[in-house]
Specification:
Pathway (chain B): Amino-acid biosynthesis; L-histidine biosynthesis; L-histidine from 5-phospho-alpha-D-ribose 1-diphosphate: step 5/9
Shape of chain A: globular
Mean pLDDT of chain A: 94
Radius of gyration of chain A: 16 Å
Number of domains of chain A: 1
Distance between the termini of chain A: 18 Å
CATH architecture of chain A: 3-Layer(aba) Sandwich
Shape of chain B: globular
Protein name (chain B): Imidazole glycerol phosphate synthase subunit HisF
Enzyme class (chain B): lyase
Strand order of the largest sheet of chain B: 1-3-4-5-6-9-10-11
Oligomer: heterodimer
Number of helices of chain A: 6
CATH class of chain A: Alpha Beta
Number of strands of chain A: 14
Strand order of the largest sheet of chain A: 2-1-3-4-14-13-12-9
Radius of gyration of chain B: 17 Å
Catalytic activity (chain B): 5-[(5-phospho-1-deoxy-D-ribulos-1-ylimino)methylamino]-1-(5-phospho-beta-D-ribosyl)imidazole-4-carboxamide + L-glutamine = D-erythro-1-(imidazol-4-yl)glycerol 3-phosphate + 5-amino-1-(5-phospho-beta-D-ribosyl)imidazole-4-carboxamide + L-glutamate + H(+)
Number of strands of chain B: 11
EC number (chain B): 4.3.2.10
Helix content of chain B: 25-40%
Largest interface: A-B, 36 and 35 residues
Chain lengths: 213, 253
């Protein structure tokens, strides 16, 4: 029985993510999904999900400040190579730097920085909020059953500028390219909320739960 | 390209939908969770629950509704009505709301928006503004369900709310609400032009052209409606097809 840990570092609404992952695990008939702030649970999880809403510095501080969670996360993902999914700010924390309010170091799993969205069209509002259509840039098992043109739900004011274009697996257009999915090795990140993106999002969650990199 | 959102709004009192929802297949049209599921399946882009009594006694009922909806619906849910404090926001987010809407409390103390946004992020803080026309091109905020004038200019307040940290503004025209005469377009446009954040138009939708006008003339990023969907005048799919035919980018499912 595989264990998927959703890390609770007191950042945002975990209920929706928990329910979406549990629904997909139930559909697959395999695996347990838990929301946890216990470093020991993260350390023995088979898959790790880092959700998150809010500001980069606050989220980074919360993650680093909570009873060994940060160390357990790094151990599980960097050392043991457990499949990892970051969602929204959880994805942004994979960057080298966050430039929100102040310069904050991230996990540096995917080189790049998180900077304010600056649409070329001044009429476009920020936050980038709502459904946008994905442009897939690379093949990946998480995109099984997903095609360019499928919509996912975004809500964010900062976006991930990826240093190596090969690690940007999908983007959307919002007065310029906005990174939607990043990935390297056993790590994945989604700027949108798969748990709020109806069938398309649930499909990607399901794909993540069956992904064996 | 970002799509314009259609948001059905359910007025809830004591755990039941107040205006009623006429769906063919709905066994219990008064159950907000069943209605939410039907709208989710019909292709709604977001959902909104408005707790219209919002007494202290029925808060538990609302949390339960939000929790049960979040277990079944995988689209964003905004909850408003009676939200006064950062603690209220936290409780609703924990129950499963994705966004929480302030109304009267933000008018009384705009700093509550800052406190909530600092803790949970602007993306989940909506500021609802209920305004009435007081003279041509001037709109005043009314609170407490439209009964209490405040003397506050709606457009100026929208700007303040955005500055304080609201991530979205929900503009309801009290003159138009329930009339089916269409959104108050000058009000919607004035607020949309005044703030850098998305604006949801609300109040007065009677036809599908009204939805189009809210976007093309009002400048709204999203349109909210209740009656035309609840009473089965139009489906979400019809509304989306109509708006798409008018050249508005829509998520067609």
């Amino acid at each position: 029985m595989s264990l998927t840990a959703l890390i609770d570092y007191e950042s945002g609404n975990l209920h929706s993510a928990e329910k979406a992952f549990q629904k997909m695990a139930a559909d697959l008939g395999e695996g347990t999904v838990v929301v946890t702030s216990d470093a020991d649970v993260v350390a023995r999880a088979d898959r790790v999900v880092l959700p998150g809403d809010g500001a980069f510095p606050a989220c980074a501080a919360a993650l680093r400040g909570t009873g060994g969670l940060y160390e357990a996360l790094v151990e599980a993902v960097e050392v043991k190579g457990r499949p990892f999914l970051g969602i929204c700010v959880g994805m942004q924390l994979m960057a080298t730097w966050g430039r929100e309010y102040s310069d904050t170091p991230g996990l540096d799993w995917v080189g790049g920085q998180v900077v304010p969205i600056a649409p070329s069209d001044p009429k476009l509002k920020v936050p980038h909020m709502g459904w946008n259509d994905l442009v897939l840039g690379a093949a990946h098992p998480v995109f099984d059953g997903i095609a360019s043109g499928d919509h996912t739900y975004f809500v964010h004011s900062y976006h991930f500028e990826v240093a190596d274009p090969a690690l940007r697996l999908a983007h959307v257009d919002y007065g310029g390219d906005v990174t939607a999915v990043i990935g390297t090795g056993t790590m994945l990140g989604m700027q949108f909320h798969p748990e709020k993106s109806q069938d398309v999002g649930l499909r990607m969650i399901r794909n993540f739960l069956t992904w064996t990199p | 390209m970002l799509k314009t959102r259609i948001i059905p709004c359910l007025d809830v009192a004591d755990g039941r939908v107040v205006k009623g929802v006429n769906f063919v297949d709905l066994v219990d049209a008064g159950d907000p969770v069943a209605a939410a599921q039907a709208y989710d399946a019909a292709g709604a882009d977001e959902l909104c629950f408005l707790d219209i009594h919002a007494t202290h006694e029925n808060r538990g009922t609302m949390f339960d509704l939000v929790r049960r909806t979040a277990e079944q619906c995988f689209i964003p849910l905004t909850v408003g009505g009676g939200v006064r404090s950062v603690a209220d926001v936290r409780a609703l987010l924990l129950a499963g709301a994705d966004k929480v809407s302030f109304n009267s409390a933000a008018v009384a103390d705009p700093d509550v928006l800052s406190r909530a946004a600092d803790q949970f992020g602007s993306q989940c803080i909506v500021c609802a503004i209920d305004a009435k026309t007081v003279s041509p091109g001037k709109w005043e905020i009314f609170t407490h369900g439209g009964r209490k004038p405040t003397g506050i200019d709606a457009v100026e307040f929208a700007h303040t709310a955005a500055t304080k940290g609201a991530g979205e503004i929900l503009v309801t025209s009290m003159d138009r609400d329930g009339t089916r005469a269409g959104f108050n377009l000058p009000l919607t446009r004035a607020i949309s032009d005044a703030v850098p954040i998305p604006v949801i138009a609300s109040g007065g939708v009677g036809t599908l052209d009204h939805l189009v006008d809210g976007v093309t003339e009002g400048g709204a990023s999203a349109v909210l409606a209740a009656s035309i969907f609840h009473f089965g005048d139009f489906t979400i799919a019809q509304a989306k097809a109509h708006m798409a035919a008018a050249g508005i980018p829509m998520r067609l499912t």
